[in-house]
């Protein structure tokens, strides 16, 4: 959805009006009718995603990448108040060159187990992808007033941390996927000294948002990475990994602009009022979904 939306917004000469933006969002989010036919294009999109996302699974199974991931620091240290741990995270080694050798799990697995493992990987990956798309959609939508934005934003974030119908194993899979794809692979693409280069020609307001002269270079990096991780989709992570491993040229500010990082985070409020919601969403909020399952299980044990 974001790809289709941003490709038109960021390449068309005229900026669409608020009403046009609202119509586009509604059309992109409209669910299919039960009796609707699935177009060939939609089938092709699904097939491409299934095969394309396997690149991330192959990284997950590669011995050198897997070893580096297991030795890396936990993702929660990136969040505010973890300054010492952010320093450790920022000084970890770069992403290693692929070994093209399977890790120990893959070596011991049958073909059937490998197929099942990718199915779980893909399901968790696309579930988080959908969550990030929903968050972006709420942030960039046109709302009649701040109250409507707050209501929809809080409802969207609640789905990240409160899914009583989701099986416990799927919740754990999502936690693992976020830790590997976003907090490990995504984080590795951004080096501490490069933060100004990512913000080049973006103006003083943007640079002051992410580069605070009162904070250290590493603290600014931590804030910068935390912000970006809320916007990365799996194809963006693949692009960053390929750029990092192959040393390709990348238009860094253009990449962030396409993510939507420089767009409004509080929606477009027609009446000009300011939302009350804290629109900061740490990715590890999904841990709460796992904790909720434990609480539910404990309540069931007590009721027995």
Q: Find the structural class using helix and strand composition.
A: mainly alpha
Query: Strand order within the widest sheet?
Result: 1-2
- SSE pattern: HHHHHHHHEHHHHHHHEH
Largest sheet: 2 strands, parallel
Work out the helicity level.
55-70%
Count of all domains: 1
The radius of gyration over CA amounts to 20 Å
What is the CA-CA span between the terminal residues? 45 Å
Q: With helices defined by DSSP (H or I, 4 residues minimum), what is the helix count?
A: 16
Task: List low-pLDDT spans.
Answer: 8-29, 299-304
Secondary structure tally: strands? 2
Query: What is the average of the pLDDT values?
Result: 81
